[in-house]
Amino acid sequence: MWVRLAIGGGLLAVGSAAIVIDRSVNYVQIPARVDKLESQCHFEKKSFRRREWTRDGPCELVELLKDEPDFREMNLIRNTKVVVRYISPADGQTHTADYQLDGDKSANASVQVNGVVQILAHKTKPDRIMKL
Fold it and tell me: pTM, whole model, 2 decimals?
């Protein structure tokens, strides 16, 4: 068992190192304009061996249901897609891409429509980005 854990930990470390190297070698930090924020919400409940969830829907509607008996013990999960416009370092042209924000609403309050965010754009592939 210890051998499996050591091998698994080693593979995880190698994979993490590869991601860090890929980011530093192939991507450059650039500003991007936020064109659109699209939020969807759903309820989710996790127990030992089981996961229950509802369909995604408009957050305003889903938030109204949080006090209903069927949803009281479920967590409200927010998924926000950020659509950005940026000038790619690969070809100097304007491109549009999107990425997902983490679910915490307060941590993402600084992302506003028409605001500027920093992203990582690929140096040779114009349509590839990563969020910071």
Answer: 0.71
Instruction: Report phi then psi at 59, rounded to 5.
Output: -60, -35
Q: How far apart (Å, rounded) are the C-alpha atoms in residues 43 and 68?
A: 12
Token pair for residue 55?
């369909």
Report how far residue 80's alpha carbon sits from residue 34's, in angstroms, rounded to the nearest whole number: 13
Question: In this predicted model, what pLDDT tens digit does every residue of 55-112 receive, in sequence order?
Answer: 999 999 999 998 899 888 899 998 899 999 999 999 999 999 999 987 666 667 788 9
Q: CA–CA distance from 7 to each of 4, 15, 17, 18, 19 (Å)?
A: 5, 12, 15, 16, 19
Q: Are 87 and 94 in contact (CB under 8 A)?
A: yes
Strands (E), the chain: 27-46, 51-53, 75-87, 94-101, 116-122, 129-131
DSSP string, 67-82: TSTTTTTSEEEEEEEE
